Amino acid sequence: MMPRLRLLTAGESHGKGLMVIIDGMPAGLPLDEDYIASELKRRQLGYGRGSRMKVEQDRAEILSGVRHGVTIGSPIGLLIWNRDWENWKEVMDASPPGKDVPPITRPRPGHADVAGATKYGLGDIRPVMERASARETAARVAAGAVARRFVTEFGMEIRSHTLAIGGEWANEQTSIDWQQVEQSPVRCADAGAAKAMMVAIDRAVSSGDTVGGVCEIVAAGVPVGLGSHVHWDRRLDGAIAQAIMSINSVKGVEIGDGFKLADLKGSQAHDAIEVSQASPYPWRRPTNHAGGIEGGISNGEPIIVRVAVKPVPTLGKPLPSVDLSTKEATEAHYERSDVCVVPAVGVIAEAMLAYVLAGAVLEKFGGDSLGETKRNYDSCLDSAQRQG
Ligand code: EPS
């Protein structure tokens, strides 16, 4: 059997546009282009983005799967046009070009360039650069908006904030002001640290360098029981790690206290189970070191994912490379790029988490219409809360 929810994206960074197909969404989910556009806009913001973000004003057209403002159960097709295509027609034309387009032959360390060109037997790195580009994440955020719209129906809220950029860390917050995060140019809840992060980005700009960082994604309102301990590819933490690790520039994913747990004793690392009359279940968890997942199953606590983002590999002052045509030492290719993408990665990781959670909801509760999924959800939760 196919997984219940499927996602395909297509499109090159400077091609005509990006396409998205989402298959498996139930009928009856309210969905409109303005909602998807508001998520796409969040991805485009962020201090440290390059001038491309001034060219694009991402908006997804709904081509299929939605009628009169609600999903109809058929595959949802979305299309985001690339405004920049106008400036790249000859370089990216699907037909043979009328004139010579010089190949790119100087791979950028850290990008997919050298491995991709070698793997696909290409003498020109351009096709690799185009598809490996983080432009593709606009398609994921559009798909994630659909998934978010769905999980919102079940009371889930997915948010992200920046913990560090260029070695500048936010102080731990007792509670996060999410509105402030949305207004922060670096999506950071600590205003003082945000300033230091922006200075780090400015410094990178002036030295022809780039910076990475860490962001945290939090999903609240996740019911107990998504994912399963019974098989490796049904574990929710595994699915989340895969989806988020697949985002361009991500080099690390941890759930809950993650790597920190390795240094602790078992008595310090785990979350006690206490009797409770106040919560929907007969128990409560006073702490959440596990980040909302135990044994590959959501345990009802917020899911917390931290993501390490490497510095963007396209450098104003390029690193040493080898020219693939002359086989001689050279400098890596430079092309307009971003200097920091950490705030955008937070938004993209929200989208990927929403997609995984939507799939997990459909695996557990099923349903071909939103009403059917909700009925199944209510009855499952009801019996789980009675522990029956
Ligand atoms: C990217 C390089 C830049 C980024 C791009 C990712 O694009 P360009 O080469 O057109 O300046 O802006 O990201 C996006 C276009 C986007 O929408 O996020 C790269 O090389 O990965």
Walk me through the structure.
With 388 residues, this protein is α+β, with helices and mostly antiparallel strands. It has a single domain, classed as Chorismate synthase, AroC fold, CATH 3.60.150.10. The chain contains 12 helices and 17 strands. The chain has a 5-stranded antiparallel beta sheet. Strand 1 and strand 2 form a beta hairpin. Helix 1 packs across helix 6 and helix 6 crosses helix 11. The longest helix has 24 residues. The model has no long low-confidence stretch (mean pLDDT 96). Ligand EPS binds next to helix 6.
Keywords for this entry:
single chain, 388 residues, alpha+beta, Chorismate synthase, AroC fold, five-stranded antiparallel sheet, four-stranded antiparallel sheet, 12 helices, 17 strands, 32% helix, 19% strand, globular, binds ligand EPS
